[in-house]
Amino acid sequence: MRAPWAILALFSTALVGYALYTQHGPQQLWPCVQCIYQRTAMIGVAIFAWLGFALAPVSASARWVALIGWLGSAVAGAYSAYYHSWIQSAINPLFAPCQPHPNFPTWLPLHQWLPQIFDAGGLCGEIDWQWLGLSMPQWLFVIFGSFAVIALLVSLCHGLRRNTAR
After folding, report:
1. What predicted TM-score, i.e. pTM, was given to this entire model?
2. Distances (CA, A) of 77 to 39, 91, 134, 164
3. How many angstroms from the chain centroid is the CA of residue 123?
4. So what CATH class is 3-164?
5. Nearest to 34 by CA among 70, 77, 74, 69
6. Largest CB tally within 10 Å, which of 14, 59, 84, 107?
7. Can you give the residue ranges of every domain in the chain?
8. pLDDT tens by residue, 4-44
């Protein structure tokens, strides 16, 4: 079934597009380091969802790679969003550290290769976007958490289906 993969791929890609719009559009909301980590995790979800959309129907191993990549990206994003929410709610922002630049591996310096997408300029403790009383990292925690739970359920269903097919 390709429709669930397409929905996940389109939704996660749209969220990345919205993040870039809030940065480069009229709002000019500069992302902080934690925002960049969450953006990178969302790009990971999108990449693995598109992989699942393209290859899952024809290859069981590709389906598992897509599922594990989706789950890993969602968990990493949820962790970063949770930490970012904690920084924003810190009583004393001086004790909530935030690096000036993302800490990508030296062999993959995304913030240098594509600074329009992966370089940070904002402060982690500032709340400059809210919707329905939640800040952007709080919403992303809900979204990434939902992605992780769904990925776990899908993985369990595929595992159970595989075991019953024997």
Report:
1. 0.88
2. 8, 24, 17, 33
3. 19
4. mainly alpha
5. 77
6. 84
7. 3-164
8. 889 999 999 999 999 999 999 888 888 989 999 999 999 99
